[in-house]
Amino acid sequence: xxxYEFRLxxxxxxxxxxxxxxxxxxxxxxxxxxxxxVDVMTDKVTVAVSSPVSGVVLAIHGEVGQSIPVGSVLVExxxxxxxxxxxxxxxxxxxxxxxxxxxxxxxxxxxAGEVRPPTSVAPMALASPSTRxxxxxxxxxxxxxxxxxPNGRITPTDFDKYVAIGSRxxxxxxxxxxxxxxxxxxxxxxxxxxxxxEATRRIPHFSYVEEFDLTELEGLRRELNVERxxxxxxxxxxxxxxxxxxxLVPDFPQLNAHYDDEAGVLRSYEAVHVGIATQSDSGLLVAxxxxxxxxxxxxxxxxxxxxxxxxxxxxxxxxxLSGSTVTLTSLGALGGISATxxxxxxxxxxxxxxxxxxxxxxxxGAITIRTMMNVSSSFDHRIVDGHVAARFxxxxxxxxxxxxLLFLDSA
Length: 411
Fold this sequence. Notes:
22% of the residues lie in helices and 26% in strands. It is an alpha+beta fold and 411 residues long. Strand 17 and strand 18 (366-380) form a beta hairpin. The protein is globular.
């Protein structure tokens, strides 16, 4: 028997520490080689870390939500044979981010250092945190739901089908609710909270909302989608907004920029790296379409689909989640009438298309039905004056309302 110390390796260039996001083992557990031990988070990327050896866990170090330095001992294990290089405790690099994770460890993990005999535990159903939360709210035992995802994972569609066929337990009589539930804000949710606080504290936001007539654009979008090839992705509204922003950057360079308020320097970029606010099971992420200026309409749609899917599924790389110079945020059908989007620091502008709706409007002296949308936007008022912001939105409105202009050399 030998003692083996598993240490946190360098999980990325310039990263000095990482936050523990989830433990999958406890003291006394028997683990096999390549079995998942822990998830760690750096910036907004969660990395799954697996064991390089088989053995019994003697102790785990660090609580969920705690930040630990690179090189720290994460797990102490008892192994059968001494590794060939056991003279120097091995620092093991984590596996690449993976969309699928084992079920999280239940409360009551023994204190570090306590050893308990290996126990046989019934496997938990694989499901995302949001699906587990819905199951708790509806009183549904997830193990009774048949999963069709990888390794039997229960997808949101599986869960919705189970609920739809009436498999919910009989309703209980109405009763007074008195429980208070405390949830520790950790991991990605804490990162989001810190970024939002920093943005609102450091940036004086100036918001502007304008009404856009998307009747022509919607007609063009439907026609292009009908005629698209199998290799072309389905067009949403966002690729049109991306192309419009690319067209406007030469005239409004200060909007495609980062403001370093500590150094007092504005860095305006010729390259257009469009961040797309993307909702995932873990929280809000900003997936980035790099060099949108090099992409046509279909290229924007294809790259947007790729990076947002990677973000939602938890497999986006650090590069795919960083480096944006401007951000688009849209809730689609849930977009509402208007919003006050928060700027993605250190950017200086964010654009938020809202919900499409048919409305009665006056056009050329007559009442007619048009497809309308309010477009919300926010700007860093230290850099972008209200007049400049209004001119930019009006130019954007012109391009979106007359989409043929997007395909001309100048407009």
